[in-house]
Design a protein that fits this description.
The structure is a single chain. Helix content is 12%, strand content 49%. With 180 residues, the chain is mainly beta. It has 2 domains: 76 residues, Dna Ligase, domain 1, CATH 3.30.1490.120; 96 residues, OB fold (Dihydrolipoamide Acetyltransferase, E2P) (Beta Barrel). Strands 6, 7, 8, 12, 13 and 14 form a 6-stranded antiparallel sheet that branches. Strands 1, 2, 3, 4 and 5 form a 5-stranded antiparallel sheet that branches. The longest helix is centred in the first third of the chain and has 13 residues. The two termini are 33 Å apart.
C-alpha cells in the first residue's frame, strides 16, 4: 500500500530563488508541485522525503530560470487488488459506505457488505442496518475489508472493497464471531 519510490523529473528554478541553497529550493518546489498528486504508475505522492540527485542547471533562451534534472525519494500510496486493509467508516450512503484507508477513501457497495441486505435506517440518520440481524454500520466504526478493484489514473484513485469473506467486516462483528 505504501512504497518508497524514486522519481525523476525536471524542476524549474525561478531567478528569485537563485540565492537560496539549491537542495532546499528543489525540495520546496518539488513538494509544492507534487505532493498529493496522483500518477497512474506510482499512485498518490504522499510526501517527498529528500532529494538524491540534482544536475547542473540549464538555461532555456527566453526564460530566466534554470532547469535541473532531479531524482527524489517519495512516500507513495498505491492500493493493490486483493489486499486486506483496515480503516474507519467516514460516510454512509444509501448505496454503501466509504472507509478511510491510508490517505484516501474506498467504497464498500451495499452489495459487498454482507450476504444480508443492508439499508439506511429510518430511525437514525447516517446508519446502515442489516434487515435480519439488526447489525449497524455508522461513521466511526472500524472495519476490515479486501480491495476488489483499484483504479488509478492521472486524475483520480477509485477503490472498491468487500466485507464478504472470512475475517472481514466490522471489528465488533469479528469479535462476536470469535466468541461464538
Amino acid at each position: 500500500m505504501y512504497y518508497l519510490t524514486r522519481i525523476r523529473e525536471t524542476v524549474r528554478v525561478p531567478p528569485n530563488r537563485f540565492g537560496d541553497r539549491i537542495e532546499d529550493v528543489i525540495l520546496d518546489l518539488s513538494r509544492s508541485k507534487n505532493e498529493t498528486t496522483i500518477g497512474g504508475d506510482i499512485g498518490m505522492i504522499v510526501a517527498i522525503l529528500n532529494v538524491n540527485e540534482i544536475s547542473p542547471g540549464r538555461i532555456v533562451p527566453g526564460d530566466g530560470a534554470t532547469f535541473h534534472d532531479v531524482e527524489y525519494e517519495a512516500l507513495t500510496f498505491r492500493p493493490i487488488d486483493d489486499e486486506i486493509t483496515e480503516g474507519e467508516v467516514v460516510e454512509t450512503t444509501k448505496f454503501g459506505f466509504f472507509m478511510r484507508i491510508g490517505c484516501t477513501d474506498a467504497l464498500a457497495h451495499i452489495s459487498q457488505i454482507s450476504d444480508e441486505y443492508f439499508q439506511m435506517s429510518s430511525r437514525a440518520s447516517g446508519v446502515l442496518v442489516g434487515r435480519e440481524s439488526g447489525r449497524t454500520i455508522r461513521p466511526g466504526d472500524l472495519v476490515r475489508g479486501k480491495i476488489i478493484t483499484a483504479t488509478v489514473d492521472h486524475v483520480s484513485m477509485k477503490i472498491a472493497v468487500t466485507m464478504k469473506g472470512e475475517g472481514l467486516g466490522l471489528k465488533n462483528w469479528l469479535k462476536e464471531e470469535q466468541k461464538a
